[in-house]
Amino acid sequence: MKILHVSPTFYPAVYWGGPIFSTYGLCNSLAAIPSVELKVLTTDSAGPALSQRIRPDSNPVVYPNGYEVYFTRRVWGREISPAQLIRLPALVRWADVVHLTGIYSFPTLPTLMLTRTSRKPLVWSPRGALQRWQQTNKPGLKRLWEISCNGLIAPRSTTLHVTSVEEAKASARRMPKAGVQVIPNGVDIPDCLLGRQWRPDGMLRLMYLGRLDPKKGIENLLRALTHQAQEKLSLNIYGVGDAAYLLTLERLIGDLNLNAIVTLRGHLEEIARRAAFAAADLSLVPSFTENFGMTVAESLAHGVPVVASRGTPWSAMAEHGCGWWVENTPEALAGAIREAMSANLELMGSKGRAWMQTDFGWPSVARSMHDMYRSLIAAG
């Protein structure tokens, strides 16, 4: 089976957040399936500035398990690359099935057009882009873009790959001509965990890991900490985002008198992630909306319990005894943090890690995706 992945950005462009890791993990696991021949077409974008780019030693680059990644030069914006369009037609002709990542991105319309005219089955991963919240940017322009996409969708041969039931509902409303299938993201599960001490000297160590953006609900998390005035706790915030928004967070931290307990750590390099999880007792994911929430899965895989908002699809954490699923309000977040102070966090962390190993390992997810590809190819 010949699979082409088309994506505006690809690993190691970790600046762009969770989808980079999930797409990379999926491709690694797909390429390990003996019958699969995989190629990836992407850009060299590694950040918002044109100078932030991946500089491969060869093109294509051969990744783990032997798949090829073609990096094309980004010339403007986040991922606009004429060279990607030049390479796209030949690679679409080569493929048995095409997998497109992203909605409001440069290669979207050309990929939809080429797969339709060449009659190639298309799997399309919105990565949560079709979900909405009250402060969604440019909803009118996004709707016009969606109308254009709907005009190019080939019914019965285009399937939206979503990672939760909540994302499926939103995606089906906005792209009614496409089929929808739910396959969760996988997560890399370390073979062993670093040694750790839970709540040293009675200090509850909180962490936030993710993009710094209003959608992530970080302000509510900061306000929740003001409800814990008598408790010993700290919060490390890992991530990058718009400079203006970062300044807003810094001002709020000062206004709430939280400078002594909150630290903005900036970008967290991949090699340091394990150490960051080992130095945390509780992970906070207070997003207003998430299609999956890779940080939840990654935290649990590292044995760290999680407090996640109801904007994430992680209600099952309570069932598995590894976290809290609460409203994204300062009061609800504060209540969960208070409960965590007296909870057996080590036991909760071990339960969460076991759940990830059973249901979210990449080999299992890749097999499900492979089955979907095969059924689309068989359907013609």
Structural features, described:
The protein is globular, with a radius of gyration of 21 Å. Helix 1 packs across helix 13, helix 2 packs parallel to helix 3 (108-118) and helix 6 packs across helix 11 (330-341). The chain has 380 residues and is an alpha/beta fold. The chain contains 13 helices and 14 strands. It has helices at residues 18-31, 82-94, 108-118, 139-152, 165-174, 218-225, 243-255, 270-278, 294-301, 316-320, 330-341, 345-359, 362-378, and strands at 2-6, 37-43, 61-62, 68-72, 97-101, 122-125, 158-162, 179-182, 204-209, 233-238, 262-266, 282-285, 306-309, 323-326. The mean pLDDT is 94. An eight-stranded mixed β-sheet has the order 3-4-2-1-5-6-7-8, with helices on both faces. Strands 11-10-9-12-13-14 form a six-stranded parallel β-sheet, with helices on both faces. Helices cover 39% and strands 17% of the residues.
